[in-house]
Design brief:
Chain A: InterPro entries: AAA+_ATPase, ABC_transporter-like_ATP-bd, ABC_transporter-like_CS, ABC_transpr_LolD-like, MacB-like_ATP-bd, P-loop_NTPase. The complex is a heterodimer of chains A (about 230) and B (about 850). Chain A has about 230 residues and is α/β, with parallel strands linked by helices. Chain A is about 30% helix and about 30% strand. The two termini of chain A are about 30 Å apart. Chain B has about 850 residues and is of the alpha+beta class. The chains are: A alpha/beta (about 230), B alpha+beta (about 850).
Chain lengths: ~230, ~850
């Protein structure tokens, strides 16, 4: 894909605050960063530091208190409603629909979009994540690792440009965590999708091309190659 | 938790949690369900108790005597002498139903003839002008005078002082009749009334047997007992009422209460659905609480006790409101019954003086019984709590409630309610059968529609196939939802549409098949004159059937009152003389259900064919012996056949039929029933016939439909009130069913949002789901209504049922819009899901 065709999410001077028991709580302020399609990012930091809020802002699902979120494609700014159609999520708790089989869970986003051949595509994706033999199993019949694979297939099946993953390996044993992480990175790369992960795992964060670290209300971009910290605030 | 005061601690904890959860939506819905049912049951029992109390008071005050004996024939001189020896005084009143004519207008009325010794007890009240001063008369009208009630006076266009011709005799209208002290015995009678002297009645030339003879006795308690013994032995067919006995309407009202109680099974069924849904909604929270308590070392029974106490607090909190609303409903119902007493004195049994007097003990008993029902319906939740363990906190898995337990508890409750209110096998079977049939129909329809819809739409993508797929996956909860809405819609449709159609169709059908004038009783001489008159004026005589009156007194040798304890329609009718028909062959409008119809050569004349419904109501079987008193002659018959009505050959049919050979052995007055078809201009000719035969019992279709319409109007009002409750419960069922899946729905919507789809998609999906739910429920309700209509028409009237298609489609649209609108509003919380919620979990 030519670089000019790639999409970008640009956050400019965004701040996020909320009120709690008459107090104003500031999560982060004047944060500027951009998410490029095809790249991988990790967001780390202690609980309550604002990682999930940043994820929501990046996905265009919440408005910042101040600052701007822009969705850029070929240099043009597109409305955020367009961004919402180009994103997929992966959750720590997998959040598969318990009534549906693995195949139907994966086919779900395609069916809702009215796409033809939804089940064939879903089957292909399940085979890609190594669950070709578990098509008709319901979530409760699958292990945690398998459920997360189904969730990865479901998030990627409609070919979103950005994947947002919240602690994707947080609920898995170490072996499964490594397998799922491998799969996640590989699939996003093959699909040309950006991967933005919130994680507490240094190992997983280390696999991302860029890491945003939250600490005491500050956010820093860790440039892994140079092993130096650049402030993005 | 201190071990010294476990109960007090449990109470404190339960109170604390009750206070915390009081405002949770599932607790609110639960209160609504329990509240509606409690209000219904308490109001029903209180109203019924008021009516029964009124009736027993009424019996003591409105009998006009200590004991009343009535029968068609006059007592013989020896019988009268024997009875006079057993009592202090006897007063005779004779009554006759006739048609009075004046200036070309006619009106059916009951004439009562009395002598100077009337009234025996109580007040005879009259007035000298319409709306004039009410005064007490010490005796009845003098010879040559007649007192009319104000309705009769107006119907005939008469004024006080004018003369009224009866046959060739003229009587002067001297007063307006306001109240007779012995009216109780005629409580069901809607006829207008007139009082005259006994000597004047003889001018009617009426045969003695069409006159009802009523003997009013002044007697003390021991004399009453002696007379009752004597009556059993000597006049078993006579009707007797005394101050210490049951009111003639008591059984009727007991039956009304039972009928409404049985119909309330539907309410309990809907409540069971709602509570089952709420149980599912509460389960997770309650199990989590229990598991935490267990992990802190609490015993299972402590946890269970807290949950039960919490439920009890909820119930107790409801009581003041329930009692206040029930008292108000009770008062309103009594007001309504009193209003009906003025509109339709016969139907409501003249409840003008019904007093509002709440019965606290009864209310407590009713509430305890209802609380037991709620306890059983809540039992599955407690069972699930009992089975809960700390493991749940580790594995994050909730233990679901077994469908078998839920079903078992609901069945237990419904069976209990049915058993309590059932007084008649046939009615219970019909009511429960029709409810079960509609439930089965809705279940099958839901399953078929969702399964087929899902199967057929599987190859396609889009919102509709997805909605169908999800509904199919949640088949049980969706079906429950559909069942609740469908049943409510069914009952409403059944109430409104069927009653409307019934009125229209009945009138139209009678006009086509049975003529527009029905002769319900004509002696042989009267019938001969009718035939002559009809031939003279080219009037068609459609049917003509002979009969005689017979009073059922014994079944298999036992007295009727001893053998039959439970009230039924058949028994109520059979407590008075009924028409006994004879026919060589099976009548064209009857079909043989069981047994064998007699042959012409058959020498056994003591056999009967009994109508099927009577057989079921009285629990009779082929071969049973029925003892009938026919014109004071006791005859025993054995049941040889059972027949049922079928359409196509007129509507005149009889419950009891015997071989014509029996006429050789029974000496009794014979009468005829007939139907005539008159042209509109020929109606004025009827007055000729009545002038000639005032005692002829003849009624026009217009009068019949008027009577039918007024009864229908009352029933419709009553059922509409009931339908209001059903609507309320249907709303609660919808709310509870939304609650039951709210968490799941919210999650589903959040997941859909995480695919990059908008909230609009979620709303569209929600609308589709409610539309499908509403469509299945409405179709089920319409089909069930149609089936019920078809079956009722076929079995009860043998008529084809033609529902109004426009009405049906209109109803479908209304149900769909209401269900979808309400459903979407109720699903507001489910639609408020977000990706952030998924991240937060």
């Amino acid at each position: 894909m030519p670089l000019s065709a790639l999409s970008t999410i640009a956050l400019t001077h965004v701040s996020q605050t909320f009120r709690h028991l008459e107090h104003q709580v500031q999560l982060f302020q004047k944060l500027s960063l951009s998410i490029e399609q095809g790249q991988s990012y990790a967001i780390t930091g202690p609980s309550g530091s604002g990682k999930s809020s940043l994820l929501m802002l990046m996905a265009g699902l919440e408005q910042p208190t101040t600052g701007q979120v822009a969705y850029l494609q070929q240099g043009r700014s597109l409305p955020l409603t367009q961004l919402r159609q180009d994103i997929g999520f992966i959750f720590q708790q997998f959040h598969l629909l318990p009534e549906l089989t693995a195949l139907h869970n994966v086919a779900l986003p395609l069916k809702l979009r009215g796409e033809q051949g939804a089940e064939a595509k879903a089957k292909a994706w399940l085979e890609k994540v190594g669950l070709g033999h578990r098509l008709n199993h319901k979530p409760q019949q699958l292990s945690g690792g398998e459920q997360q694979r189904v969730a990865i297939a479901r998030a990627l099946v409609f070919q979103p440009k950005f994947i947002f993953a919240d602690e994707p390996t947080g609920n898995l044993d170490s072996k499964s965590a490594v397998d799922v992480a491998d799969l996640l990175f590989a699939c996003c790369q093959q699909n040309g999708a950006a991967l933005v992960m919130v994680t507490h795992s240094p190992q997983l964060a280390a696999r991302a091309q860029q890491v945003f670290a939250f600490n005491n209300g500050n956010c820093a971009l860790l440039e892994k190659a140079q092993l130096e910290v650049q402030s993005v605030c | 938790m201190s071990a010294n005061h476990p109960i007090r601690n449990s109470l404190q904890l339960a109170w604390h949690f009750y206070q915390q959860q009081k405002h949770h939506s599932s607790q609110r819905v639960l209160r609504w369900v329990q509240g509606i049912l409690l209000v219904f049951i308490v109001t029903l029992s209180q109203t019924s108790a008021s009516i029964q109390a009124y009736l027993s008071h009424n019996l003591a005050n409105l009998l006009g005597a200590d004991l009343v004996l009535s029968q068609p024939l006059a007592l013989s001189a020896s019988q009268q002498a024997e009875l006079a020896a057993m009592s202090q005084q006897i007063v005779l009143s004779q009554s006759l139903t006739t048609t009075l004519t004046h200036n070309g207008q006619w009106q059916r009325a009951t004439l009562k003839a009395v002598a100077e010794d009337y009234p025996l007890q109580g007040e005879l009240r009259t007035a000298t002008s319409q709306g004039g001063q009410d005064s007490v008369s010490t005796q009845g009208p003098a010879v040559g005078e007649i007192w009319l009630d104000s309705r009769l006076l107006a119907a005939l266009g008469l004024r006080i002082g004018e003369s009224l011709s009866i046959g060739s005799h003229r009587l002067q209208v001297s007063r307006i009749l306001l109240h007779e002290p012995d009216r109780l015995m005629e409580g069901h009678n809607v006829e207008m009334r007139a009082l005259l002297h006994r000597q004047d009645l003889q001018q009617f030339r009426a045969t003695d047997d069409i006159i009802q003879h009523r003997y009013l006795f002044a007697a003390n308690t021991s004399q009453i007992a002696t007379i009752l013994q004597w009556q059993k032995a000597h006049l078993p067919a006579a009707q007797v009422h005394h101050k210490h006995g049951a009111h003639p309407l008591a059984l009727f009202w007991q039956r009304t209460e039972n009928f409404i109680g049985l119909a309330s099974i539907l309410l309990f069924f809907m409540a069971a659905i709602a509570m089952q849904q709420l149980t599912r909604a509460q389960l997770q929270q309650q199990q989590f609480f229990s598991a935490v308590c267990l992990s802190l070392g609490a015993a299972k029974k402590t946890v269970l006790r807290i949950s039960m106490l919490q439920w009890l607090f909820g119930l107790l909190w409801l009581l003041p409101q329930v009692l206040a609303i029930s008292a108000l409903c009770h008062w309103l119902l009594l007001q309504w019954l009193q209003a009906q007493a003025f509109v339709q004195p016969g139907v409501a049994g003249s409840f003008a003086n019904l007093a509002w007097q709440p019965d606290i003990v009864l209310a407590v008993k009713t509430i305890v019984a209802s609380a037991s029902i709620f306890f059983v319906l809540n039992f599955p939740l407690w069972l699930a709590l009992w089975q809960c363990s700390v493991r749940q906190l580790i594995q994050q898995q909730q233990r679901s409630i077994s469908n078998a337990v839920l079903f078992g508890c609901a069945t237990l409750v419904l069976a209990g309610v049915a058993a309590h209110y059932s007084d008649n096998g046939l009615l219970t079977t019909m009511l429960l059968g029709s409810m079960l049939a509609s439930i089965a129909l809705l279940l099958v329809l839901s399953w078929l529609a969702l399964s087929l819809g899902e199967k057929l739409s599987q190859p396609f993508s889009g919102l509709l196939p997805f909605a169908l797929y999800m509904m199919k996956q949640r088949l049980i909860s969706k079906t429950t939802q559909i069942l609740g809405i469908g049943l409510a819609a069914f009952l409403l449709l059944f109430t409104l549409m069927l009653l409307k159609d019934l009125g229209d169709n009945m009138a139209a059908h009678q006009r086509t098949h049975d003529g527009n004038v029905l002769v319900s009783q004509a002696s042989s001489a009267q019938m001969a004159d009718i035939q002559l008159w009809a031939a003279q004026h080219a009037i068609t005589l459609r049917q003509h059937k002979p009969f005689m009156y017979a009073q059922l007194t014994h079944i298999n040798g036992g007295q009727l009152a001893d053998v039959m304890q439970k009230p039924s329609d058949s028994l109520a009718t059979l407590s008075r003389p009924v028409r006994l028909h004879w026919s060589e062959a099976l009548p064209g409008n009857n079909r043989l259900v069981s047994g064998q119809w007699w042959h012409s050569a058959d020498t056994n004349w003591q056999q009967l064919s009994v109508e099927q419904e009577v057989m079921t109501d009285l629990g009779l079987q082929l071969g049973d012996r029925l003892g009938l008193v026919i014109a004071e002659q006791y005859v025993e018959f054995s049941i040889a056949a059972t027949h049922a009505y079928q359409s196509g050959a007129g509507a005149i049919t009889f419950w009891l039929q015997m071989p014509p050979g029996a006429l050789l052995h029974i000496e009794a007055p014979q009468y005829n029933m007939a139907s005539l078809e008159l042209q509109p201009e020929q109606f004025s000719l009827l007055s000729q016939l009545w002038q000639q035969h005032p005692s002829l019992r003849m009624v026009s279709l217009q009068e019949l439909t008027q009577r039918f319409d007024s009864s229908l109007a009352m029933v419709t009002q009553l059922i509409s009130g009931f339908a209001g409750l059903i609507i309320l419960l249907a709303g609660v069922v919808m709310v509870s069913s939304v609650h039951a899946v709210e968490t799941k729905e919210q999650k589903k919507n959040s997941i859909i949002l995480s695919f990059g789809l908008s909230k609009r998609t979620c709303l569209q999906l929600n609308i589709i789901e409610w539309l499908v739910t509403g469509t299945i429920a409405a179709c089920g309700a319409i089909v069930a209504t149609w089936l019920a209509g078809f079956l009722i028409y076929q079995s009860q009237f043998s008529l084809p049922y033609h529902p109004d298609i426009g009405w049906l489609l209109g109803t479908l649209t209304v149900i769909l819009s209401l269900v979808t609108g309400l459903g979407v509003v109720l699903s507001k919380n489910s639609l408020s899901g977000s990706v952030r919620q998924l991240l937060a979990e």
